[in-house]
Amino acid sequence: MANRWKHDRPLSRAEFEVRFPDDAACARHLAERRWPDGFVCPDCGGAKGWELTGKRFTWECAACGRQTSVTAGTALHRSHLGLKVWFLAAHIVTSHSNGISALQLQAQLGLGSYKTAWLLLHKLRRAMVDPDRSLLQGAVEVDETTMPLRRKADPPAGGQGRSPLGKMLVAGAVELSPEGQPRRIRLAPIADFSAASLKPFVAAVAATGARVITDGWSGYPGLPGHVHDAKVIGPMAAHVALKWTHRVFSNLKRWGLGVFHGLRRQHLQRYLDEFVFRWNRRRHTAAAFDTLLGRGARLAPATARDFIDQRV
């Protein structure tokens, strides 16, 4: 039982510097993560190539002659930041148990621009989502919550319970072990608490046949492909019947206020993605760094405009 609560340890800053002393070491590691079975040409699919000595971090395909940078076509594509800066940012983000704001990251990396730190953080958050992740299985708690808006110009939060006035609305799901302990979670912003918003959320996060446990809210009528276990309860007892979703929501709100002084509606999904990433790896923090780099190496590039316009 004691081992269940044992946490692994992320790299210390000194260990990071030994492992990744310069851009060249970072490039070698990135190449291993991008091509774990050896070089693969992104153009023709050829499996033979060599690293060029005259061009930094560039490979040439033996079949078609295309030259490919180790960062081309990845989350690091055309970045003006050095690989060491990217790696250090990923290390800082994953080794801080509660996360870090763009302002703090700017200071720790010595960046001259807040916008650069902000964009770097959002690119890392994008890499926190595995596009091939499996759906939640077995017993799955599902509930909703509200979060206050951050901007001073936003209307103040008001209304009781599920009232959306001045709030952001979030749906959450927690996968339970046979012993009733939390495993993985999923979070997503929703437009309202109606069936039109909640049923697609359940379908997107819970596998067919999963036992979906809710509080009996009218937004969950008839969940096709799932076993609906509705705990019809009074409002004061919801934290008992759905204790893990309520704990996740409580931690999410404290995290949003403590690290970022509140979250913004425009990029809420990215912040939720980061919280999910951290929760799902809360006992495996050492692996989070390599996971983040590995996903970034396989992720298509995105620009600042993509994030501002929410195209990614």
What does this structure look like?
This protein has helices spanning 13-19, 23-34, 83-95, 102-109, 114-126, 195-205, 238-241, 243-260, 268-280, 285-298, 304-308, and strands spanning 49-51, 58-61, 67-69, 139-148, 167-176, 182-189, 211-214, 227-230. With 312 residues, the chain is of the alpha/beta class. It folds into 2 domains: 6-126 and 287-308, no CATH class; 139-261, Nucleotidyltransferase, domain 5 (2-Layer Sandwich). Helix 3 (83-95) runs antiparallel to helix 10 (285-298) and helix 4 crosses helix 5.
Could you list some keywords that capture this structure?
15% strand, Nucleotidyltransferase, domain 5, 2 domains, alpha/beta, 8 strands, disordered N terminus, 312 residues
Concise overview:
The chain is an alpha/beta fold. It is built from eleven helices and eight strands. The chain folds into two domains: 6-126 and 287-308, no CATH class; 139-261, Nucleotidyltransferase, domain 5, CATH 3.30.420.
Shape: globular
One letter per element, helices H and strands E, the order comes to HHEEEHHHEEEHEEHHHHH
Spatial order of strands in the largest sheet: 6-5-4-7-8
Range of strand content: 5-15%
Query: Which parts are unreliable, with pLDDT below 50 for 5 consecutive residues or more?
Result: 1-6
Rg, Å, rounded: 22 Å
Percentage of residues assigned to helices: 25-40%
Give a quick account of the main beta sheet: strands, pairing sense, barrel closure: 5 strands, mixed
Quantity of strands, as a count: 8
Can you count the helices? 11
